[in-house]
Design goal:
The protein has 484 residues and is α/β, with parallel strands linked by helices. It is built from 20 helices and 13 strands. Strand 1 and strand 2 (114-125) form a beta hairpin. The model is unreliable at 1-21 (pLDDT under 50).
Length: 484
């Protein structure tokens, strides 16, 4: 009986990451990966990745950000596909999200004029649990960006160790140049439509770019209004409108960075840290850096950047937080309150010498040229604190120049750890703080990613380790589910 069951189970027949059945490998390699234009087979992991990328470019030639994410992610799977070719079929399934929703968001501005934006929710994978992922309000947001963010969340939530799937969403709406009442009306209109597709057992949205505490409150308030739902402060969908630990993701980024340096016999204490961005994530990164004895020296926004040569202390950081808490306020106001700050000097923030860089502003902010300048200025490590702030070429420079690199797929895993769903299904133990849980989980994630990189002969390449480890956790379950 047991032998029959083992024969029928794809997981038992072909093993996990360490499966070495030559018969199983040959069986999978003899199967065509694609059949639409004739049977297409591969012999190596590199060939499989090229076939997958070609198929994606044919299907979505104009989805620039999504294709960038695939080109950055799939090559990291080559050593895994060389050992276990069966995973190529799972990678093919992940080229498509399970569901993509697009809808109109109509609302009235303060002048009484009708306005319209486009809203999205891409429910990418429910393999490990209900969909979970950020909502992003950005005037330049597109469906390709939402799809890319959804795919990246598959790996991030998998690494978090939580029973969470992956999703992403948002709208091409800029909350920074809107009044508070306009933002509230927009959020209510957006949620009226989004509420048809989300819920505690289906899809749990979270914070993202342009969606902070005020927006979460407005969104949840409308969700509660149109659903038979009772608020659960700090838990469940959108934390019942009141996240208990909104700085958790930023603190997780810092804890991961500290583990990276500890692995090299060092720490963040005393390190001069260049922080880009000035949203809730960047500010929480700076706050935790101060707690650990590091020295944050910069912030940036769409108008420019400010630099404190001797660093931001707690009082100066509170001033920045106060400025950024005012909707639409720009960082340039900070120089009025400081006699030592420099604004847009030097012209490029990445020309400021620093030991560690926390890139927490926007996509592709560090290219190969800026990566070279960072290396030449003696930068020890670059940590991603946003979705894909470093280009593929920049990562290649870091590897060549020996600069430590913390990939966002691992550093942002704190999002799942502090999600309302996770705090409801896995409440804190007596005496346990949420900050302590984040610290422990980020240490575990670093060890997981680091060990996976070593296992697949990519020692020190935490990006490859994060992609492989996150992928395998999802892929093994998808194999058991079959072609769905």
């Amino acid at each position: 009986m047991s032998s029959k069951i083992e024969h029928l189970s794809p997981l038992s027949q072909f093993g996990g990451v360490h499966g070495v059945s030559s018969k199983g490998q040959k069986t999978w390699r003899n199967k065509p990966l694609f059949r639409r234009d004739g049977d297409q087979r591969f012999k190596t992991g590199s060939e499989a990745v090229q076939m997958l990328l070609l198929a994606a470019h044919k299907k979505d030639p104009h989805s620039t950000e999504f294709l960038e994410t695939l080109e950055d992610t799939l090559p990291a799977l080559i050593p895994l596909l060389d050992r276990q070719p069966k995973y190529a079929w799972i990678a093919k399934q992940l080229l498509e999200p399970e569901r993509a929703i697009q809808f109109r968001v109509a609302w009235l501005d303060d002048m009484g004029y009708s306005r319209m934006n486009r809203g999205w929710r891409t429910q990418y994978s429910s393999t490990l649990g209900p969909y979970e992922g950020g909502l992003h309000f950005n005037g330049n947001l597109s469906s390709a960006q939402v799809k890319a963010l959804g795919l990246e969340t598959v790996f991030t939530n998998s690494l978090s160790g939580c029973s969470l799937g992956a999703a992403s969403g948002g709208a091409d709406f800029n909350p920074h140049n809107k009044s508070e009442s306009e933002t509230q009306r927009f959020c209510q209109s957006y949620m009226t439509e989004l509420s048809k597709y989300i819920g505690p057992d289906m899809d749990i949205p979270s914070m993202g770019y342009g969606v902070g505490l005020p927006e979460v409150g407005y969104l949840y308030g409308q969700y509660k209004r149109v659903n038979d739902h009772v608020a659960q402060k700090g838990r469940g969908v959108l934390w019942g409108g009141i996240p208990l630990y909104p700085e958790g993701v930023g603190h997780g980024v810092v804890y991961f960075a500290n583990e990276m340096l500890r692995d090299k016999g060092d720490s963040l204490k005393g390190k001069r840290c260049l922080v880009t961005g000035s949203g809730k994530l960047a500010l929480s990164i700076a706050g935790k850096l101060l707690e650990l004895g590091a020295i944050p020296i910069s912030f940036s926004d769409s108008n420019g950047h400010i630099v404190e040569t001797d660093g931001f202390d707690a009082a100066k950081l509170r001033t920045v937080v106060s400025i950024k808490n005012e909707r639409g306020a720009r960082l340039g106001r900070y120089i009025i309150s400081s006699t030592t700050a420099r604004f847009n000097d030097p012209e490029c923030i990445f020309d400021v010498p620093a030991d560690v860089v926390f890139a927490a502003a926007h996509r592709n902010e560090i290219d190969a040229d800026r990566a070279q300048r960072l290396a030449e200025n003696g930068c020890l490590a670059v940590i991603e604190g946003a979705n894909s702030p470093c280009t593929k070429a920049a990562k290649a420079v870091f590897r060549k120049r020996g600069v430590l690199f913390g990939p966002h797929m691992a550093t942002l895993a704190g999002n799942g750890i502090v999600s309302g769903f996770e705090l409801s299904s896995n409440p804190l133990l007596p005496g346990q703080s949420i900050d302590r849980r984040v610290e422990e989980q980020m240490a575990r994630i670093f060890a997981d990613v680091n060990n996976t990189a070593k296992e697949f002969n990519t020692r020190g390449d935490l990006h490859a380790g994060a992609v492989i480890s996150g992928f395998v956790k999802v892929a093994d379950v998808m194999l058991a589910h079959g072609a769905v």
